[in-house]
Specification:
The protein is of the alpha+beta class and 92 residues long. It contains 1 helix and 8 strands, in the order E-E-E-E-E-E-E-E-H. The chain has one helix at residues 77-91, and strands at residues 2-3, 6-7, 12-16, 22-33, 36-45, 49-50, 57-63, 69-72. The strands form 2 sheets. Strands 3, 4, 5, 6, 7 and 8 form a 6-stranded antiparallel sheet that branches.
Amino acid sequence: MEFRGKKIEDLIITLPFMDGTTADYGVHKYFKFEGKEYFAMLPLIGKKELDHTKNISLYEVQEDADKNPVVVYIEDDAEFEKVANYYSNTLK
C-alpha cells in the first residue's frame, strides 16, 4: 500500500508525548474516512518492525509543503470515536 507514492511500510513517524519523550511509529494502515485521511500506527521494534502486541494509534494525516506526511492528533472526541469505529468495523 502507498501514501502519495511512498510505501507505507517505509514511513517512520516520531511522535512527541506530553512528558517530553518521543517514540517511533510505523504505519499499519492508511485510510480515508469522511473526506479526511488517517494513519493507523503501531510502535516499532527496532528500526522497521511493527509491534503488533501494542494498541493501534489513530491520527489524521496531512502533508507539509514538501508533500511529507504530517500526523495530527484527533482532538475532537466525537470524530475520534467515529474514526475508531470505522477502523474497528471495516479495516481491522
